[in-house]
Amino acid sequence: MPKFLLLLISILSLGSCNDVDEDVLPVIGIYRAHVFGVAGPFDLITSTDSNDEFKIEALFDGLEYYIACAEISDINEHSINIEIDKQNISSDITISGKGFYVDGTLELTYSLKEDGTWRDFKIVGTKL
């Protein structure tokens, strides 16, 4: 029993090393969103990851749900700027982009590379 408690305390202390930055909290939630000119409405979900990073689950291509990692790049008086670094969201799709959050509205402008071709998209969502 003491070994189990020691193991449990060790695991908890390791898990607490990745605290979430409170600046990301306003962005976290569920949004009613549209891929501009392609699809909608659908639910876009954001959840915390670590520090100023968070995950976005959305129909980035208007067809299938994917998860992308994003981070807070800047905070000013009226808005929170978001950066989506270049990453693979599936075995054959790459995403890169940026966006902002202001007063319950999230806008993401991004590019998807599929089959060697880059296409530009924009998602606009309102927090539920």
Give a brief outline of the structure.
With 128 residues, the protein is mainly beta. The protein has 1 helix and 8 strands. The model is unreliable at 4-8 and 12-17 (pLDDT under 50).
Name the descriptors.
single chain; 128 residues; mainly beta; Lipocalin; eight-stranded antiparallel barrel; 11% helix
Task: Walk me through this protein's architecture.
- By secondary structure, the chain is mainly beta.
- The chain has a single domain, classed as Beta Barrel (Lipocalin), CATH 2.40.128.
- Helix content is 11%, strand content 59%.
- The protein has an eight-stranded antiparallel beta barrel.
| CATH class division | Mainly Beta
Q: What structural category characterises the helix and strand content?
A: mainly beta
At CATH level 2, the architecture is Beta Barrel
- What ranges have pLDDT less than 50 throughout 5 or more consecutive residues? 4-8, 12-17
CATH topology heading: Lipocalin
The radius of gyration over CA amounts to 17 Å
Helical proportion?
A: 10-25%
Instruction: Write out the strand line-up for the largest beta sheet, numbering strands in chain order.
Output: 1-2-3-4-5-6-7-8
Dominant shape: globular
Helix and strand layout, with pairings?
Blueprint: H1 2-15, E1 29-35, E2 39-48, E3 53-58, E4 66-75, E5 80-90, E6 93-102, E7 105-114, E8 117-127
Antiparallel strand pairs: 1-2, 1-8, 2-3, 3-4, 4-5, 5-6, 6-7, 7-8
